[in-house]
Specification:
Number of helices: 4
Largest sheet: 6 strands, antiparallel, barrel
Number of strands: 15
Helix content: 25-40%
Strand order of the largest sheet: 1-10-14-12-11-15
Radius of gyration: 40 Å
């Protein structure tokens, strides 16, 4: 009896462990996705992902000058015309410099008027001396000195006029800098993004903090795997589906290929991710103008590859 006791305990423990393991296993039930994935209507399909962008491409608006933003003149979503002001850099120092230059110009113009008067007086004295020289009333030395006086007065006038021209050119330069302190729209379009506030510093030629683009019509930049790039032709039909609602779709009109094949960019945000695939970028135009999509949104794209496959046989 004692010889059977330990084996029975072992068998009981094994049964208890087996039952516990079976009962603790998670019950996995098949679940349907909240939204069905999009389906292609082509027999031979090239699937890709597209990114909505403006038809003018996204323009990163920069500043001509470095400085502190004094005033923001638009907001995101505004439609602007060419030359419309977008934001203004603080230009008080330029305005002070302009006032100084204008004062210097006024002083230079006064010196020019004085020099012009001195030249007229020197010429008059020379004319009188020449008349007196005919009557042998004035010496040759005095006549020569008056001729030199006319020449010196003419040089002083030239110098004063050059100073006036220099000051006017400087004023023009300062006025141009003041004009450049207001950043304007290079084209008609929509303000897509503003990462700028009054009081913030912007650097000339630095990272753009405002994005502008023409949103009518919209374009779709499609990344096509380099292994399937040969299957895509400009005349092939293509459709794009809105993510989250595949019933919202639109036909695409081919615009162009980007001739340079670029590394594939995964939108994971991981700085250490590795890219070992390159993609051919094709630009399409969205035919449906009433489709509710936004710049920067991703769409699922299907391109017909049947014609290419049959032609290659």
């Amino acid at each position: 009896m004692k010889q059977l006791f330990l084996p029975l305990i072992a068998v009981g423990c094994a049964l208890f462990a087996t039952v516990s393991i079976i009962r603790s296993r998670p019950v996995r039930e098949a679940t349907e996705p909240p939204v069905a994935p999009p389906k292609t209507s082509f027999q031979q399909t090239v699937a890709a992902v597209g990114l909505v962008e403006s038809s003018s491409e996204n323009i990163l608006v920069g500043s001509h000058l470095s400085g502190v933003v004094a005033e923001l003149l638009v907001k995101a979503g505004d439609s602007v015309a060419p030359g419309a002001p977008l934001f203004r850099i603080d230009s008080r120092h330029l305005q002070a410099d302009l006032n100084l230059r204008r004062s210097q110009l006024a002083a230079a113009e006064a010196r020019t008027a004085t020099a012009r008067t001195g030249l007229a007086d020197a010429k008059d004295q020379l004319q009188r001396a020449e008349k007196l020289r005919g009557a042998t009333v004035i010496s040759d030395d005095e006549l020569t000195r008056r001729r030199f006086a006319v020449e010196a007065a003419a040089n002083r006038l030239t110098e004063a006029e050059a100073e006036v021209a220099t000051n006017r050119a400087t004023i023009g330069t300062v006025e141009t800098e003041i004009e450049r302190s207001t950043v304007t729209a290079p084209m008609d379009g929509t303000v897509l993004k503003i990462d700028l506030r009054p009081g913030e510093h912007v650097a000339a030629g630095g990272n753009a903090k405002m994005i502008l683009g023409r949103t009518s019509p919209l374009h779709l930049r499609v990344d096509i795997d380099e292994h399937e790039g040969w299957r895509v032709r400009p005349e092939a039909e293509a459709t794009a589906h809105v993510r989250g609602n595949p019933k919202l779709k639109t036909e695409l009109k081919f615009v162009r290929f980007e001739p340079y094949v670029v590394p594939k960019r995964s939108l994971t945000g991981d700085a250490t991710e590795r890219v070992d695939i390159r993609v051919l970028q094709a630009i399409y135009r969205l035919k449906a103008s009433d489709l509710r999509v936004f710049v920067g949104q991703q769409m699922d794209v299907f391109i017909d590859g049947a014609a290419v496959v049959s032609a290659s046989k």
